[in-house]
Amino acid sequence: MLGLTKASAVLLATATLVVASPAPSPVIHLLPRQTIIPGGKPCGQNNATNRRCWKNNWNISTDYDNINPPAFNNRVYDFHITNVTNWLGPDGVRKPAMLINNQFPGPTIEADWGDYIIVNVYNDMQDNGTSIHWHGIRQYGESNQDGANGVTECPIPPGSMKTYDFHVTQYGTSWYHSHYSNQYGNGVVGPLIVRGPAAANYDIDLGPYMINDYYHETADRLHLRAELVSNGPPPDSDNILFRGKNIHPLGASRGGSYDRLTLTPGKKHLLRLINASVDNSFVISLVGHNFTVITNDLVPVNPVVRSSLFMAVGQRYDVIIEANQAVGNYWLNATLEANNNCGRSRNLFPAAIISYQGASTTALPTNRGTPRVATCNGETGFSPILTRTVPSTAFAGSAVGTLPVTLEFPNHGRGQVFEWRVKNTPINIEWDHPILEYVLENNSSWPGAANLIDVPQADQWVFWVIQNDFALPHPIHLHGHDFLTLGIGSGTFNINTMKSQLTFNNPIRRDVVQMPGNSWLVIGYKTDNPGVWLMHCHIGWHVAMGLGVQFLERKDEIKRMMPLDQLVPNCDAWRRYAKTSPYLPKMDSGLRRREGEEVEKREPAWRRIA
């Protein structure tokens, strides 16, 4: 892990800007998509009484995997990522941070279904690379825009910039975050929303509502603590933030303020919930109100009413809240599981305030609500509106692969460390030689530590039995696909005798699913998106300790579909920087020195994807 240094607070105002990757021309991209292909019969415009329709020609039943509105807009954003060494955090504690445009959370990216999003990312830090992943975005034919350094690109070096340019073919709520180490835990994170049709009517869109664990120490140092077996469980979060706000865990007198969100009496409100944590999962509930769930991750579902929702790291829910209670203030609570199986916080009662218009703007809610008993179990019972049915006969032979997940305790020079493995391999990516660059070079000699699986078949269903052989759960995230969750169960899955326990007719579909401890998870997806796609646990500590695997999908088609030569300028810039950086090259073991710390061995710099 790369640490924050005192010098990192100074912006590179006098540095020469290196354009790391030429921006693809949006005109070239847009021209082929100007022909309007309606997604159904004309149905009117999207409004409070007609949310199932979108711009008259598309609707909630339009199959977005095959038909999208034309790219009416290019949504352009400039991100400047900087170090701040003495940032006054939202709960009153000063700490080092990494910020986008000097704000936390980062700017909200907004687009309409079918638009292009163009983000110019400027790395104004001195000693850290970066890359930005657009979580949950399918990136059809655009794997090179996925933002996973060491997989689809090299990191953006200090003083350089890179333009990401991608088509949003889904709609709903997501987020973006740095994929460089656990950097997003230092603040390089923000919401991303794509407006489109909805499964139920609502009056007011309240926008994204990001909830995340928060630490007073840097994520880099916390990881070094978390990976040592002698330190026991991972560090507790110092707080839980709601839209970047909360009081200090020891009381408001120490700093900070509760987030307040206003409801209009008698109206239905769309709230876009996001768990952008590094480690903590939680159950969300609003005293006196229910949630009508209309989307999980980026998959519209038939409306389901819930009194609470478990949210694993990386998951999102679009919910409708009806303001049908007495005018007043109500607690929005985040409840963590009591046994520290999916995170723990020093804030014992994390909460925000939902206020009705007309209520006191200073008074606290008086009703804490019925105490919730949180577990680490994921939500079930959602039915996607766009159905996907898999022939059960397809679950056979080479279409089914097994991915055992295990925990080992090797000694890496400073004592035993936790090392998560998939297929008995802790993933170890190469920052200076990503897999897509291997594809560009027609080179198949990537190291075994890349933990890469070749998936050559086209437009076929493939299935993965993920076998968790340890007691802790994992939120499993797959890039490039919304996958089908065919089944989850305890113990060991037997392909020959347990097929009847799987659901092949329109199972839950999403991009993050919670896999329980000592259990099996079976997922499936169609190989309709050539590229290299990372699958990993979204707990930052776990993926940094090795819990990840890569799928190289339809390798022979990738070079024809995307301009891989655009990888080279950024990778060349990174390789030049790496030769002179005091924190590189990357080491396979040991400790790497960080300025201002007492050092006995070098700090480990391996497996830095998060």
Summarize the structure.
7% of the residues lie in helices and 33% in strands. A hairpin with a 3-residue loop joins strand 2 and strand 3.
Topology readout:
Blueprint: E1 18-21, H1 26-30, E2 53-54, E3 58-59, E4 74-88, E5 94-100, E6 109-112, E7 116-123, E8 132-135, E9 160-167, E10 172-178, E11 189-195, E12 204-214, H2 219-226, E13 239-242, E14 260-263, E15 268-275, E16 282-286, E17 291-296, E18 299-306, E19 309-311, E20 316-322, E21 329-335, E22 351-356, E23 400-408, E24 419-422, H3 435-440, E25 452-455, E26 461-468, E27 474-478, E28 483-490, E29 509-510, E30 512-515, E31 519-526, E32 531-537, H4 540-544, E33 548-553, H5 555-561, H6 567-580
Parallel strand pairs: 1-9, 4-7, 6-11, 12-15, 14-22, 23-26, 25-33
Antiparallel strand pairs: 2-3, 4-5, 7-9, 8-10, 10-11, 12-13, 15-20, 16-19, 16-21, 17-18, 17-20, 21-22, 23-24, 26-31, 27-30, 27-32, 28-29, 28-31, 32-33
Protein name: laccase
Organism: Podospora pseudoanserina
Domain Plastocyanin-like: 89-197, 209-359, 438-556
Can you walk through the features of this model?
It is a single chain. It contains six helices and 33 strands. By secondary structure, it is mainly beta. It has a six-stranded mixed beta sheet with strand order 13-12-15-20-17-18, with no helix packed on it. The chain starts with 17 loop residues before the first strand and ends in a 30-residue tail after the last helix. 7% of the residues lie in helices and 33% in strands. Strand 2 (53-54) and strand 3 form a beta hairpin. The model is unreliable at 1-35 and 586-610 (pLDDT under 50). The protein is globular and about 65 Å long. It catalyses: 4 hydroquinone + O2 = 4 benzosemiquinone + 2 H2O. Its cofactor is Cu cation. Belongs to the multicopper oxidase family. InterPro entries: Cu-oxidase-like_N (IPR011707), Cu-oxidase_2nd (IPR001117), Cu-oxidase_C (IPR011706), Cu-oxidase_fam (IPR045087), Cu_oxidase_CS (IPR033138), Cu_oxidase_Cu_BS (IPR002355), Cupredoxin (IPR008972). Its EC number is 1.10.3.2.
